[in-house]
């Protein structure tokens, strides 16, 4: 068998976890149009798959977020959020994902510009939770839900959202911070994250995704002021060797990892080509990194496609793919018994028809 075909098969079959996935970013054009039609959404401006797919051609984070928030507006009812979530879970089940930790952006629904377009927090989380519970039972995928705050909205809005979430405390594992990064430092949300930890939630944050003057500072703020367990993206970490050492040290002591999304970084122009991506150097420096898909409907690939992209770019061997998959389990927010169970399945796979050398 051709070596590349063999490695593709290895990647497609290897058990893995996904730790950086925005559920609203899994809204494929076909489902977006179907939901808009079902809800008789007269404001939805895309009347064909072709026109909608054309809108998915963007060049930077700001342009992406513009179409992302446009798509979010079609989600109005509990069934919409259920359909969105179960479609993603079925997809990653086919890609041998054993565990996934899903971001959702409640403010994108509860605080839409037009009052009549706003959706209650309960509607959003109930639809998502129903799909997660079904997947755990029928697909045997374990899940965790992470509630993200939109950093371009103020901390008062974030605190209001946190308080709305309290009746559903047991459904949520962690809080995060996402959306436009530049000019929105993590430290702005310190009080909100302090409150979240008091309520028993873990914390994560997007930081160091874009190449701006404060990228490294934002990563440090996320670690030191928001007390995060993981950094989402963090690809600018290599700009500071002391930060790299800190990430390496924390990885030995906890779940600390960078949840990297290669195709997202490429699509948004954060790297010119995949061969320029910092993931190989981060792995060489023994920073714990994981592979994820971010917003796969928009960025051209789910988790297996992301694994394949970095494997081809860097000629990764099976041992490198194994390491990435193991990292995803080690950095997850499940308990030790579930981690051991998933790692055992990974080791069984690696020692079977696909020995890792």
What key attributes describe this structure?
TIM Barrel; eight-stranded parallel beta sheet; alpha/beta; 357 residues
Order of the strands making up the biggest sheet: 1-2-3-4-5-6-7-8
Q: Globular, elongated, flat, extended or rod-shaped: what is the shape?
A: globular
Rg, please?
A: 19 Å
Look at the structure and name the CATH superfamily: Metal-dependent hydrolases
Largest sheet features? 8 strands, parallel
**Number of DSSP E strands:** 8
Q: In CATH terms, what is the fold-level topology?
A: TIM Barrel
| Percent of sequence in beta strands | 5-15%
Number of domains: 1
| Average of pLDDT | 94
Low-confidence stretches: none
Question: Separation of termini?
Answer: 18 Å
CATH class: Alpha Beta
Run of helices and strands: HEHHHHEHHEHEHEHEHEHHEHHHH
CATH architecture: Alpha-Beta Barrel
Broad structural category: alpha/beta
């Amino acid at each position: 068998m051709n070596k590349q075909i063999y490695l593709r098969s290895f990647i497609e079959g290897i058990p893995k976890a996904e730790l950086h996935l925005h559920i609203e970013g899994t809204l494929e054009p076909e489902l977006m149009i179907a939901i808009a039609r079902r809800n008789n959404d007269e404001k939805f401006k895309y009347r064909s798959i072709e026109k909608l797919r054309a809108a998915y051609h963007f060049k930077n984070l700001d342009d992406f977020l513009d179409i992302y928030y446009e798509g979010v507006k079609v989600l109005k009812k509990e069934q919409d959020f259920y359909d969105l979530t179960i479609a993603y879970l079925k997809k990653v089940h086919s890609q041998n994902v054993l565990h996934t930790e899903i971001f959702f952006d409640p403010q994108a629904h509860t605080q839409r510009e037009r009052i009549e377009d706003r959706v209650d927090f309960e509607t959003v989380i109930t639809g998502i939770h129903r799909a997660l519970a079904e997947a755990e039972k029928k697909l045997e995928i374990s899940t965790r839900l992470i509630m993200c705050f939109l950093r371009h909205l103020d901390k008062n809005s974030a605190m209001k959202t946190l308080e709305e979430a309290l009746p559903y405390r047991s459904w949520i594992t962690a809080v995060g911070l996402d959306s436009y990064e530049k000019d929105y430092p993590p430290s702005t949300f310190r009080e909100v994250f302090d409150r979240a930890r008091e309520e028993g939630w873990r914390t994560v944050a997007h930081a160091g995704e874009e190449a701006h003057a404060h990228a490294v500072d934002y990563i440090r703020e996320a670690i030191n002021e928001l007390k995060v367990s993981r950094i989402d993206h963090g690809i600018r970490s290599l700009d500071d060797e002391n930060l790299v050492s800190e990430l390496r040290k924390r990885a030995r002591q906890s779940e600390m990892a960078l949840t990297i999304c290669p195709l997202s970084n490429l699509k948004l122009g954060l790297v010119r080509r995949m061969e320029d991506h910092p993931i190989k150097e981060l792995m060489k420096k023994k920073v714990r990194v994981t592979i994820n898909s971010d917003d796969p409907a928009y960025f051209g690939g789910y988790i297996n496609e992301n694994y394949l992209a970095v494997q081809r770019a860097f000629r990764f061997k099976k041992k490198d793919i194994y390491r990435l998959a193991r990292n995803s389990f080690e950095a997850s927010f499940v308990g030790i018994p579930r981690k051991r169970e998933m790692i055992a399945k990974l080791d069984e796979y690696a020692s079977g028809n696909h020995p890792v050398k």
